[in-house]
Amino acid sequence: MTGTSERKHHFLLVHGCCHGAWSWYKLSTLLRAAGHRFTALDMASCGVDTKPLDQVHSIVHYYQPLIDFMASLPAHERVVLVGHSVGGIGVSLAMERFPQRISVAIFATAMMPS
C-alpha cells in the first residue's frame, strides 16, 4: 500500500478454555514475520504455568498472569489485546482495569460479557 505508515504493534494474546499460550503458534509466527511484537501468556494452571488447579478459586485468579502483565507494562506502552473463546472474559477484565494501556481489543470468536 502506497502512502500508509507501517506502524508496528505489540499484540497480547489470551488463549481460550482448555488451551495455553501454545495455541497461538501460527498467529505468532505471522506477527513476527510482519515485524510486530507479541506476548502469549499461559493463564493460571494452564500450559507451563505451575499454579495447582486447586489454587484457582475464581476467574480473577485464573487471569492473574494477564493482570500482572498489564500492570507491568510501561506507562507509555499500549497493546493490541486479542482473546479467543473464554479469553474474551480476560480481555474484558483487562479493559476495565487498564483502559489506558490498550489500543484496541479483539474478540476472536470470544465471549464478550456485558
UniProtKB/TrEMBL annotation:
> What does the entry give for GO biological process?
jasmonic acid metabolic process; salicylic acid metabolic process
Which Pfam families has this protein been placed in? Answer: Abhydrolase_1
Domain AB hydrolase-1: start-end pairs: 10-110
In terms of superkingdom, the source organism counts as Eukaryota
Molecular function in Gene Ontology:
methyl indole-3-acetate esterase activity; methyl jasmonate esterase activity; methyl salicylate esterase activity
Q: What is this protein called?
A: Methylesterase 3-like protein
| Gene source species | Cinnamomum micranthum f. kanehirae
